[in-house]
Amino acid sequence: MAFINSHKNFAVKSELDVFSTKPSQHSIESGLFIECRPISVLDSDSPLEFFISASDDYIDLPHTQIKLKVKIGREDGADIDDSDSVAPCNNFLNSLFDHVSVELNGKTITPPSNYYKYRTYIENLINYSTEAQNNAPVFLQPRTRNIVITGNIIQCASFFQPAFLINDQWYKNAQRSFQEITKPKSLNPNAADKWLFEPLNGVAHKGIYSEIDISSYVKSLNEPLILSHLPFLYNG
Hints:
By secondary structure, this protein is α+β, with helices and mostly antiparallel strands. It is built from four helices and ten strands.
């Protein structure tokens, strides 16, 4: 016991401390949610901006929530009917936004990044076990067939886009490797996850193709995590 320092307090391993009474939190007297409406015009081409004025209360950023009322319809604005096969994808709310940033007194504390929806997707895969994912009623597994076909348009998640940004370089999927390409044109929120593909020698190109071609292209897709790792391996 010579290694025990007499000036330090004794501690008990948390695994063995099963009978002690946990401390009570009394530093926070109360908490409440305050609704803040956006100060910007609601438009598909402009960002949503919220302004929270200074006060004597603390703001709990991790518990800040955003509430949206959305409607799923056809591309021409018409309502869907019983014959349409429609279901929300994983992280449905997160996939609506390209990036999220927070400013404090006019200074950006969370710089905007196009990795926002990718980060959310990966966090769900890492933070929840396989058993939890399999038992979740609305959690779709990251299989290569998680693609919704609507007519001759393929609507796919952000991981299955033909071009994406990694380390400030744009890549496109070519079988199980990646080719560096020029930066694609800007995408608006309404078209961010709608792409037209045409398989040509195993490389995904824009175009229109049939369901038979869809099946052949789906087989060439990789798992989401493999997609995120391959560019680094490809660059050595």
